[in-house]
Amino acid sequence: MHNSEDSSTQKQKNVPFRNKKNKGLERFNTFSNKYASWAWIITIALLGIMFYLNNSPIMFGIEPNIRFYLILPLLWIIVGLVASWGWKYGLEEKPKFNKFFLLLAIGAGITQVLVALISGLLFKFGKSPYTHSFPYILGNALFVITYLAGLEFSRAYLLARYVNKKPLLIFLLITISFTALIIPLGFYTKFSSPETAFIAVGSTLMPSFSKSMLATYLAWIGGPLVVFAYGIIVTLFEWLSPILPKLSWMVTAFLETLTPMILLLIVNQLAIQQDEGDTISVDEQEQKKKEKRPSYLWVGVAVLGVALVWFNMGLFGIRPYLVSGISMRPTLKAGDVVVIEAVSPREIAVGDVILFKGSKVYILHRVIEINSESGKLEFITQGDGLSTIDDPVSETQIEGKMVASVPKIGWVAIGIRRALGYDQIPMPK
Description:
By secondary structure, the protein is of the alpha+beta class.
């Protein structure tokens, strides 16, 4: 009897506690249902603050260990919590968690890591720039987890809130915004000359954009947990592996841009197949949501856009060049676009039209004579519409030779360049 009374008394004491707890949850739910629709404003503001703090001298004055292992993780946790609050209470439509999409994201992350490892084996590995002694490795893991949680939960929430209105526009806007968010302001100082800008775009900007596009797509189809699973695999490998592939910037640019794009197409195809397999068991409203997901058409357009950028940068061995002068008339006229192929100087013959570096600009002229001195070739060139011969061109000045031309398709670009005061492509200093 004594034990029974104690048990009954204890239950009675717990009732008020439960009532208070339930009332607290009810008040929180009421508050959340009323105000969570505004969480997107707080999320964007917090992301702006994080971008500022990551690039502000204010943070540089704080001891690094405190900054990276305490302050920044706490701030990213706050960002993630606000985004999660908005995701749970402030969205009318959002993707449901799907284990299949989670496995796709994990597979994409593992594949990207394997590509990095294989590239390291084919070329070479180098020592990681991150500290790997204990307890710093734990601090690095803490920072990566909190950073990605805040970043990817924000991406998924903001995307889900607006993507149903204008899918393609919002998808690209989120992709571009989060690409800019993860690139430090110091990156833009590399645009001081065309040469450094060329390398910066290839080695940093385009790979970051490509990864962000894949992450945004995963957030679209599966929500925050799916995109977080992809990001955590790739980022933890980069931060925790003691060795990383040490590649030339061109190889890095090509692989780190192409791999996410290929994975995006594969994931897109598998996601569509998964949707088609579920069409029998879903209701009409759910089917409409699925129809809003990206199709082969615009995903292909996105990949084609990246490929065109790389073509323009010459990473496929060929690149376009816009003719804006009159020195090659009548063969080539202003507004024509020619395709330049990177070739060995010894593959160039008299009569070929070559692109070479002049003192200040790139020049496209015809080879009229080739001389050889001490085993090195020297090219004499002249514009078809000029009566004067150029200064001798060395092997190191040659960018490639013309292999094709398309007339008059570059007049829009010429108009823009002349409006900005550029008549020729500037040379690096």
